[in-house]
Specification:
- 2 copies of one chain form a homodimer.
- Chain A has about 325 residues and is of the alpha+beta class.
- Chain A is built from 7 helices and 21 strands.
- In chain A, strands 1, 2, 3, 4, 5 and 14 form a 6-stranded antiparallel sheet that branches. In chain A, strands 7-6-19-10-11-13 form a 6-stranded mixed sheet, covered by helices on one side.
- The two termini of chain A are about 35 Å apart.
Chain lengths: ~325, ~325
């Protein structure tokens, strides 16, 4: 089942979307918003699935889907907790600045609490006030949880994953060093992120959803050129069950909590950092990683961060070449 | 005007409370929840104020208020951003571990993104799985904003403060060093916080609300004994307008964003760290601060963190000795 939210009010209007994303049916009579559905999932999910079945068989009237009419599936959420599950990425960050990666990073997940009061729609511009802030995309996988009790195990946590999707976790790279040096984590350096057009239930993903990981190439295009083709199921040190269990160690998590994987990152076939797609590699899911590779290789970064007018596309295809979650397609715009 | 939420469902049921907190009237016909009121404040606030006037004059039937029936005014929120506006507190933290306070800390606010998917009610237990985590209270002032545009000035931001209240920002002190060492800020070390019984509009506060600061003694009792009497309007380096402007530098803030002051902390009359209330000082708003003073004075902390069965009370009184925001009154319980 694939769910989305039409732009309406602060929380959108819940719709069920066809598997190929071509059509939709209004679901607001079942639950007005996706958050409302998540709040009462055991009751609402079967009704939405029945509607999805009717949509698939043509038993209910449908309308053509226009991605530009979509808000983020959750236009605002009560929690956005982002991990750094691809430790390869973290190791590169450290390597580029000449720092060792502590061994604990391979066993103890790194997470931060992000801002969840506003998520951008999949076609919304990335609003940027100052190019010198070093705006970057970060292509990631996200899951949405039901109510998660404190102290849950990784295995139990996997069973509490309601939906899977993608995010462009926008980062302001040049604000990060100063902010992290203050010791309390990110705030100004993490503006609003964009979510994929649709979120899907794990059962819809078939073999692509295994062991709490999403498998398949996460496509990232920058200004129309292939930038990243890393596999989200490869080099993910901590699966989503492990990330959720880490988050729930000292507190419960409310239904509708969005948990991020961190920037997807694959090692190269030779074990080194990835090569650009143009050089036959799998590329990168953020500009910073390419800049780190450039720094390690050449002593300095060469690729600039995002400028006004730059475009970013993020999507994952099914075996038929259809975008499973739709496509995040954003342009950087001055505000 | 004083607003609160009766325990009901995930978001509570909005009520208007009398100035002395003795009675209330249901306001859910005007807006079902406080978040719904904040989402449409310009339309809803006048209606709530009219109801508050009717409550004050007896023109509407009221019911006796039982604080135990109250949820947090916002049982869940879309954002909880906590500052460290009392730099005296930050300086003590540093001093206790022999670190210098960078001069920038006096000019550049320190904030972190906290978890907002669950706030405890004012009489709810503090649920603690492990005493060795070093559970501590932190008595703070909070404000709730309307929609805040990106790039707002401190002066404009002050005009976007809708409500004022108190919080017990529960912290797990012994988890903080390891978590901050990882570089991404707090997560496991900051479980759910408790909010005061009522939130009030700034106009209700009279002279106590000036220049974006709440003035008056913030009372903290630990196990029935006076622990803190620091004035929230003193030694607050960054007023709430400045904190909000800092938060909104790179993004907008959604209506219902809760912004915290950080632990209230006053210097002693001689300019040094505060003395305990029993010694004639203004005491502390968290145990950690007393432990830092003990460390600076005696070489080691003596006061333990919270244990099962310990009680914490936090309140601020008006000129008549009434608790303006009601009283946060919690017991630490094993879960």
């Amino acid at each position: 089942m694939k769910l989305a939210s039409l732009k309406q009010g602060r929380d959108g209007r819940l719709i069920v979307v066809s598997d190929d994303l071509s059509t939709y049916v209004d679901a607001s009579a079942i639950a007005p918003t996706l958050q409302a559905a998540l709040d009462d999932w055991s009751v609402i999910e079967p009704k939405l699935k029945a509607l999805a079945d009717d949509l698939a068989t043509g038993a209910v009237a449908s309308q053509p889907l226009d991605a530009a009419a979509l808000a983020a599936p959750l236009p605002r959420a009560y929690q956005w907790a982002d991990g750094s599950a691809y430790v390869n990425h973290v190791e590169l960050v450290r390597q580029a600045r000449g720092a060792e990666l502590p061994d604990s990073f391979w066993h103890d997940p790194l997470v931060y609490q992000g801002g969840s009061d506003r998520f951008l729609g999949p076609r919304d511009a990335i609003p940027l006030a100052d190019e010198s802030w070093g705006c970057d995309m970060e292509a990631e996988v996200v899951v949405v949880t039901g109510d998660v009790p404190q102290g849950v195990s990784p295995e139990e946590a996997r069973g509490l994953i309601r939906l899977v999707g993608l995010v462009n976790d926008v980062s302001l790279r040049n604000l990060i060093p100063g902010e992290l040096a203050k010791g309390f984590g990110f705030y100004q350096s993490k503006p609003a992120s964009a979510l994929s057009p649709v979120f899907v239930t794990p059962d819809t993903l078939g073999d692509r959803w295994q062991d709490g990981k999403l498998h398949g190439a996460l496509n990232v295009d920058l200004n129309g050129h292939p930038f990243g083709r890393a596999d989200a199921g490869v080099d993910m040190t901590f699966d989503f069950g492990t990330l959720i269990a880490h988050l729930a160690k000292t507190r419960s998590l409310g239904a509708g909590t969005i948990v991020g994987s961190g920037t997807v990152s694959n090692r190269d076939a030779d074990g080194g950092p990835g090569r650009p797609v143009a050089d036959g590699g799998l590329g990168y899911s953020c500009i910073a990683e390419l800049r780190m590779v450039e720094t390690i290789r050449d002593g300095a970064p060469a690729t600039p961060f995002l400028k006004y007018g730059d475009t970013v596309r993020i999507w994952m295809e099914d075996d038929n070449g259809h975008a499973i979650f739709g496509t995040i397609d954003q342009k950087v715009e001055a505000i």
